[in-house]
Every structure is written in C-alpha cells, then in structure tokens.
Amino acid sequence: MDTLQITRGQINELTSRDAAPAVSIYVPTPRMGTDVLQSRIRLKNLLTEAENHLVARGMRRTLAKDFLLHASELVDATEFWNERLDSVAIFVSKNRFQAFHLPFATPEHLEVGSHFYVRPLLRVLSLCPIYYVLALEKNHVRLVRCSQRGADSVNVPHMPESLDAFLSTDHADKQYQFYSAGRGGRAGSLIGYGAGDRSVDERERIRRFSTAIDRAIIEHIAPALDPVVIVGTQEMQDAYRSVSKLPNLVPKGITCSPKMLDDQDLRAGADPIVEAVADEARRAAIERYRLLIGTGLTSRQIEEILPAAKQGRVDVLLTYEDSAIWGQFDPRTGTAHVDAEPREGDEELINEAAIATIGNGGSVYAVQHCELTLDGPTATIYRY
Fold first, then answer.
1. Percent of the chain, pLDDT > 70?
2. Which of 188, 218, 219, 366 sits between 20 and 30 A of 35, alpha carbons compared?
3. Are residue 62 and residue 142 in the same domain, yes or no?
4. What is the DSSP string of 135-194?
C-alpha cells in the first residue's frame, strides 16, 4: 500500500476495471493543527455510510465490514495521519486497497459504484509529484530530490563533489586522458591530454567535470523521467547542457550561485518552473479545443461524449472539477441516459467518460471556469 503520493501510473491502474463494488473515499486533512481528529471522525462516518451502501447493494453486513476492514483500520492509525498532506483518498474493491495522501484539498466525498471515482485526482495529471534540482558550482555539487513533502539531498555514487576533487583523482586523469571530441569533431576522433596537463583551459575542465556529473546522475535516476532543474551560474549551466544526455532536463534553469541556498530554498525556486512545464500539455489541450470548435471534432454533450469515449474516439476530455452528471450507460445500445438528480444505481457519467478515455489512451484534464467557458460541465476533442 502506498500512503504517500499518487502518480499518473497509479491513476491509470485505478481506471482499470475492478470487480464491483468499488468504494472511493475522499477526506480533507489539514496539514497543521489539531483538526486531524475531525478528519478521523469524517472517515469513520463515511465508512459507516459505505457499509450501508454495500448492504443496500445486496452484500451481507458481516461481509461489508470485512470488505472495508483495511480502510477502517486507518481511523486509528496514528502514523498514517502523521504523514498527511491536504487530503486522503482511499480506494477499496475486491482486489484492491490503496490509500494516498494528496497534495491538494478535495471535498469530502463517498462513491460506491462499478468504478472508482477518480475525477478529484485529475489535477495530478497536471502536477509533477517528484523532480530533482541539480545545484552546480565548482566547489560543491548537489542533487536534491523534491516532492510535496519537502526536499532532500541525494547521495549519487561516483558523482564528483567539486571541480578540484574531480581533477585531482587518478580516475579523472585516466578516464579523460583521451576524451571524445563529441559534436565538435569527427565521430570517433580523440583528443589527448597528458595527466596533470595544466594547458587545458578552464572551459574544457568544466566540460569534463560536467560530463562526469551527468553520467553519474543518469546512472542513478534512470529509468525515471522525473524533471531535472539546474541551478547555477550561466557558465556552469551552459557547460552542463552542452554535454548532458538527460532526456528530462528542464530547458529553463535558475541562474545564480547555489552556494548559499539550502535544499528547501532550491525547491522553492524550482517549484514554479516545474509546475509550468507539467501544465504545458493541459494548457495546449485547452487552446487546441478552442481552435477546433465548429469543426465537428468537439462536443459538449455527455450523451455523445460517453459512447465515443467507450469506443476509443476521445482524444482529450476537459471537465470542471465542481461539476457532475448523473445517469446510466447502457452497453447494449451504447447510449447514455441522464437524470436531473442522482438515483439508485446511477453513476457519475463524467467519471465514466474519464475512465474510458484514459483506458483507451486519451488524456483527461481538469479546467477552471476562468480558463475555458463551456456551455456545460464537460467537453471533448475527438480523434476522428
């Protein structure tokens, strides 16, 4: 069980079809103060309500209690509540029990249906839960792992800590006695330097230093694709970017000396950069929707969107977080029926469309009213 932070991959897993019933619980959890007791009471009450829903669906009460047992144990799990962020999301089905701390607030919510209720998680698709900051200076190099919980320096094996230490080691002399000319020379050509050759200019030394740093980082964090932000002088950034093979190196860095910055300072400076990069796909989808209105490749009607999502025709689904459409989808006829108010047996149809879209390789994004005005709670871009 992961009780820390949810990822894109875990959201994809939650959208896979589990055996019904699927119970989804969201509880707001303030990070500070004594209100955590209130969060425990909320969870306890929601579990009682979930038990009643399961009984109403035909499950015996003793089986319903067993079904929710792991979730019920969280009520008194002190360590679990000590780890809290802004909300807790809990998912229970016959084959799954997972609890996540979310780095954003969600309303209190319970859903018992044939799928997990994932719509409050959609903003995770526009966040970057984990990223790295590479603090580059000649006298000290740090790799800092950043998350919603904070920032901590990472011990990277074989990564040189300073330029002087790197140049003074036998390893550096031997490894770079013959060094590839790279982009500036012919493939396979070599440039020779004698050990301790002080005629090598400073830029070349920094380039070799950067190459060693890059190799160590790639070896340590591969195959992860978490973004890496550089903090350093322009000279150090240029040298590192000229040799780096990191596929996830963020184009924009922070130009300053990181010497006086601690790990938390580095995270605070890098957060806005990473957030902007992570949100690029969502903002591009909003603009694409605007451009395609009137072409026949968009829709705002759930009666059209849900069947298309089930068929794999939806490329992008956009939805407001505070909206809901209740009804039922008939797989035999491929039609969606919408109810003005939720009735027994109804499903939240935007959630159904989101699950089908993700399951068929499409993208789902939460949008704000100030970003996009929709004549309804959801909209889509069709593949064809």
1. 88
2. 366
3. no
4. EE-TT--EEEEEETTEEEEE--TT--S-HHHHHHSHHHHHHTSEEE-GGGS-TT-EEE--
